[in-house]
Protein 1
Amino acid sequence: MRGLLTILLLTGSMAVQAQSAEKFIQQGNDLYRQQQFEKAGIEYNKALKQEPDNATAKLNLGNSLQKMGKEEEAIQLFSEVAGGEGDKSIKARAFYNKGAVLSKQKKLEESIEAYKNALRLNPADKEARENLQKALLEQKKKNPPKKKDDQQKKKKEQEQQKKQQQQPKMSQKEAEQRLKLLEQKEKDIKQQMQKAKATGGGSKPKDW
């Protein structure tokens, strides 16, 4: 997986204030390349004092913070850049950087969404696409599909439930009719027993 994006350089003519911010960004970039991330962060903060909405300074400061292990602060800055107005390419890089940090934190769902957003802004970003595929694969490994046995068992249970539902249920009227029939049979049996007692007290042993 590719590391965070390289620091960005400013170009073009600017006002005095913008030139001052650019100067601090360039100094921060030099320190960043020397892996002096804390000092680089100081210079990027100076640039942001001059231009609080400077997306390049925010993005590069986020990179410095990530290198210092301050991942949550870095994610916050990347989110600000990604959600702000301005250059689509910078916003795409902010989404990519955010996805990279979230992948490192094993926050796969959020990471996947960040990579998708990066690709929406820059469909040609090959590395964002590759990292998205890796994150999706890792998520699939983390949440594997259910085993075939479980699926078959569930299918059988569903079929049994369906059969039970399809079986005709006895209506209240039918139940009452059956009950009346049983009561009538019991009544008939009692009457037969009474008749037998009246005629001779029941059965007698036969003579051989």
Protein 2
Amino acid sequence: MKKRIAVLLSGRGSNFEAIADSVAAGRIPNAELAVLISNRENAPGIDKARQRGLKAVVIPSKGRQREDYDREVVGLLQAKKIDLVCLAGFMRLLSPYFVDQFRNRILNIHPALLPSFPGLEAQKQALEWGVKVSGCSVHFVDENLDAGPILVQAVVPVYDNDTEEALSARILREEHRIYTEAINIVLSGQWRLQGRRVLRTE
């Protein structure tokens, strides 16, 4: 039985495409992309999903209470029998209700080496702080912003003449690589939590 993955996004969907490519190429074995959900009707990721023949659903979030919205999304995910939820530029904080329904089954990718630079404009934060390395992190989602246990990280150098756009592009290439790695870890079941640490058990 294939593991069923859902992707939630709000924008362009580049990490969604990387996940879809990995599933199609067998780099994420025994898995299928069961549904893509966007909270924004004009998100480019929706068209990208439909061009691939994948199920894409828009559930608009504007003006709705967080938990009310999340209950509708969770209902769809449960109806689709989703095993793993992957956030790919989903610009909403999940409610405790959502997290409880999929505890340790929600992943997010963040363009910084957490716990440094959580939230928006992480690459801009990194440049303003003058760090010498940045990168990206895939972590479990909990009730707090960019704070769940970390599965995989990748380091990217920061150059003296870097711009936010150049740094973002280099980080994005690593995001596409490590998201697949993190998904495989979770779907394999060969991991355990020890405090905040995600340990491999293979």
